[in-house]
Request: fold
Amino acid sequence: MPKTLADIKKSLDCHLGKRLNLKANGGRKKTIERAGTLRETYRAVFVVDLDQDENAFERVSYSYADILTEAVEITFDDEKREAIAID
Reply:
């Protein structure tokens, strides 16, 4: 698991355009699971284009700090065993 925000960004930069599954903490013991494509990475956030048949909106963005604090877990489809956040 990457230890700094810069390491997380570099790791995500290598996976631009790839399919992923995302698990996010929704608060009050809720977990939100979404599928989509990693579209862009910016200085402080990354953007995921969601599958339109499963979600009500087009895209979501999260900060690298969300991954660092284990509020978000990302698993890429081509690397099912390698997760960037919590296991």
In short: The CA atoms of residues 78 and 85 lie 16 Å apart. Residues 5-79 form a domain with the SH3 type barrels. fold (CATH 2.30.30.100). Strands lie at 19-27, 30-41, 45-50, 59-63, 72-76. The two ends are 10 Å apart (CA to CA).
